Amino acid sequence: MKRLAYIDWMRGLACVLMFQTHCYDSWLSPEARKSPVLIWSHLLGTFPAPLFIFLAGISFALVTERLREKGIDRTSIAKQTILRGAEVLGLGLLFRIQEFLLGFGYAPWTDLFRVDILNILGLSMILMGALCYFTGSASLGTARTRSILAATGAATIVAMLTPPLWTTLRPKFLPWPIESYINGVHIFNAPQPWLFPLFPWAAFAFAGLAVGFFLQTEFARRRESLAFALLGIFGIAASALSQLFDKSSIHLYAVYDYWHSNPDFLLMRSGLLLVILFASYAWCRWGFADRCSGRLPRRALFAFSPLIQLGKTSLLVYWVHIQFVYGGLSILPKHQCSVAKATFGLATIFLAMLALSLIRTNWKKWRPARSSAPAAA
User: Fold this and answer.
1) Collapsing DSSP states into helix, strand and coil, what is residue 209?
2) Strand blocks (E) in 24-89
3) How far apart are alpha carbons 3 and 376 in whole angstroms?
4) Whether the Cβ atoms of residue 304 and residue 2 lie closer than 8 Å to each other
5) In a domain, 358, yes or no
6) Could you give the number of structural domains in the chain?
7) Residue 107 to residue 321: CA distance in whole angstroms
8) What is the pLDDT of residues 348-377, one digit of tens each?
9) Range of the domain at 206
10) Closest residue by Cα to residue 320 from 335, 305, 307, 330
11) What is the pTM of this model?
12) Are 78 and 130 in contact, with CB atoms under 8 Å apart?
C-alpha cells in the first residue's frame, strides 16, 4: 500500500516529541529539573503515545479497507490483521526481555511484565481485527459504516469504563501482571499513569480506526480536503466540550481524576489529535512538506523532510533510542546534566536516529551501488 505523507509526518512528529521527553527526563540534574524546560517537555510528552496509537488505528483501517476492496473474505482479513497484532505484541514482550537482560543485576524481574506501548499497540490491533471481522459485510459501504459506528462505540465504552476500573471496580482478584493490562497497576497499590493499559489507551486506537474508515468513505474520497477540515473542526469542538464537561457540577464517577483516567481528558486529547491530523494533512498537502512528499521533482530545494523520514521507521528509532537515552549505552550521564548539555544530547540523538532511519530505508538502494562500483571502475 502506498505510504501517505501526512501519516509518516505525524509519526515523525511523535518521534521527535518522544525524543525530547525521554532525553530531558533521563539526563537533567535535580537542579535543572526545576527549569520551565522540563515542564514544557512533560506537556509535549503527553502527545507521542496517543499519536502512535491513534495512527495505528488509522493505518489499520486503511489496510483493512484495501483488503476488503480486493474481495478478500473477512476471515482471511481477520487472520492477517490479528496475526500482525500478535507480532507487535511479541515484539513488545521481546523488548521487555531485552531491557531486562541489558540491565541484568539491577533491573527487577517485575520489569518483564511491565505494560509498555508496544504491548498495548499489539493488543489493540488484535481487538481491532476482531471488531472488523464482526462488522464485515458483502457490501463495502455497509462494512465501512458498521466499522465506523462500532469503532466509535468501542472507544466510548473504553473511555467510560476507565475511571471505575482504575478506582472503585478494580479487578483486584486478578494476578497483578494481568490486572496491569487492564489498568496499569503493575506492582503498586494503584494504577500508574506512566504505563499503557488497555483502559484508556485502546480508546485512541479505536478512535483512529473510526477516523481511518471515515477517510475511506465516498464523501471523503471526493472531497478529501473538506473531510480533513471537518475532522479538524470536530477536534476543536471536542476539546471545547471536554472543558465544558470538566467545569460541570455533574460528575458520573466517585473518583474524579481529569488528567489521568477521566473520559473528559481523553476527549480533549482525541480532539487535539484530530486538529494535529488536519494540520499535518494541510502541511503535507499545501505547505513546505509538500515538496518532501513526492509532489515536486527530487531536485526541488530542500526536498527532504526529517519528520517524514523518521515516520517511515518509527518502530526502529523507538527501539534503538531507548538504549542511548535510558539504557546502559546512554550517551550522557543520567540525572547530571544542565539544560544546555541535555539539549545538545537531544540534538545528537535526533541526528543519529535520522541517520539510522536513512540507512534503513536506503540500504537496498545503496548496496547494489557499492557492489557495482569496482566493476564500473
Assistant:
1) helix
2) none
3) 34
4) no
5) no
6) 1
7) 19
8) 999 999 999 999 999 877 766 544 444 433
9) 55-270
10) 330
11) 0.92
12) yes
Burial class (CB in 10 A: 0-12, 13-18, 19+), 138: exposed
The H or E element that residue 130 is part of is helix 117-134
Instruction: Please name the residue that has the C-alpha cell 473542526.
Output: 233
289 assigned to some structural domain: no
- With beta carbons less than 8 A apart as the criterion, state whether 15 and 318 touch: yes
- Asked if pLDDT for residue 339 goes beyond 60, the answer is yes
- Tell me, what amino acid is at 15? C
DSSP state of 34: G
Q: Is residue 71 part of a domain?
A: yes
Q: Which of 370, 11, 54 is nearest to 209 (CA)?
A: 54
152/204 Cα distance (integer angstroms): 10
First-to-last alpha carbon distance for the chain, in angstroms, is 38
Cell representation of residue 284: 503535507
pLDDT in tens, 262-275: 999 999 999 999 99
In a domain, 214, yes or no: yes
- Which residues pair with residue 337 across a beta bridge? 28
Instruction: Answer yes or no: is pLDDT of 290 > 60.
Output: no
What percentage of the chain has pLDDT greater than the value 70?
A: 93
3-class SS of residue 115: coil
CB 225 within 8 A of CB 285: yes
d(CA 338, CA 38): 11
Q: Which helix (H) or strand (E) covers residue 161, if one does? A: helix 140-166
Contacting residues for 123 by C-beta, under 8 A, at least 6 apart: 85, 89, 181, 198, 202
User: How is residue 82 written as a grid cell?
Assistant: 490479528
Local confidence band at 257 (pLDDT 50, 70, 90 cut-offs): confident
Query: What are the residues whose beta carbons fall under 8 Å from the beta carbon of 144, sequence distance 6 or more?
Result: 65, 213, 216, 217
Q: Which of 268, 79, 254, 281 is nearest to 170 (CA)?
A: 254
User: Which grid coordinates are listed for 269?
Assistant: 486529547
- Please say whether the beta carbons of 298 and 235 come within 8 A: no
Check pLDDT > 80 for residue 289: no
